[in-house]
Amino acid sequence: MKxxxxxNLPHSTTExxxxxxxxxxxxxxxxxxxxxxxxxxxxxxxFVEMTDATAADKAIAALNGTELGGRTLTINEAKPKxxxxxxxxxxxxxxxxxxxxxxxxxxxxxxxxxx
Length: 115
Known about the structure:
Alpha-Beta Plaits; two-stranded antiparallel sheet; single chain; elongated; four-stranded antiparallel β-sheet; 17% helix; alpha+beta
């Protein structure tokens, strides 16, 4: 059993179409297209699970770089989420400071020194 990542799919691709692309290369166990949670629209990638690892390798060799719906497919072995390297957060990460030391437009009481 081997799980393949299929990227750069046309957003109009259906699971049946993707299955038809891979079946000539071996038995397809499962096809999953990833969709946006909020809109339900395809995110342009998916996964194909093939029962025979050798057939899956042949499918990668035969289909990676081919076109589907005018887009060049990217196909490789899917990596489990836990195996991906942990990197810095992609979108900023960390919160901003509280604006320490800036005048926020309201008067502050002066404090006596603590010594």
